[in-house]
Amino acid sequence: MECIFCSIVKKEAPSEIVFEDEDIIAFLDINPINYGHLLVLTKEHFDNFLTVPTELLQKLISRVQFLAGIVKRSTSADGFNTMTNNGTAAGQRIFHFHFHIIPRFENDFKLNLISKNYNDQEMKQIADRMKEFIEKYKGQLNG
Ligand code: AMP
Ligand code: ZN
Fold this sequence. Notes:
Elements: H1 4-9, E1 17-20, E2 24-28, E3 38-42, H2 54-75, E4 79-83, E5 98-104, H3 120-137
Antiparallel strand pairs: 1-2, 2-3, 3-5, 4-5
The structure holds adenosine monophosphate and zinc ion.
């Protein structure tokens, strides 16, 4: 089955597009967390954050920054969340990578995230393991 966001890019599926350029498109989320909830994505299909080429990702992020300002001003929001879900475990439902920009208003709702505690040893172990992986993969860093 075709990707719904690819269909929107090709104008084969309906959507409320608010911005597009050669590489990037932004349209209203059909089931907004708050009115004005915007989705911003590359026109080309990439599954998730890790597979978008870095140069294109930089362009995407610059558009997300611009559009976050537009969302905030146009909805008179007090703040906004930008987020991306990657993988079903993280709540991703459409596997065409996209940023959410969600306008937020004082006392609208609380994100019900429950935080954990580290003991010192656990924290250091996890940091050390990450640093080992950074050493191993740092050849992939660009920019
Ligand atoms: P995610 O869970 O990060 O994959 O988010 C997918 C988002 O796409 C959800 O917030 C949906 O409400 C939204 N969505 C799904 N289908 C459409 C559509 N046809 N037009 C606009 N937004 C959509
Ligand atoms: Zn797609």
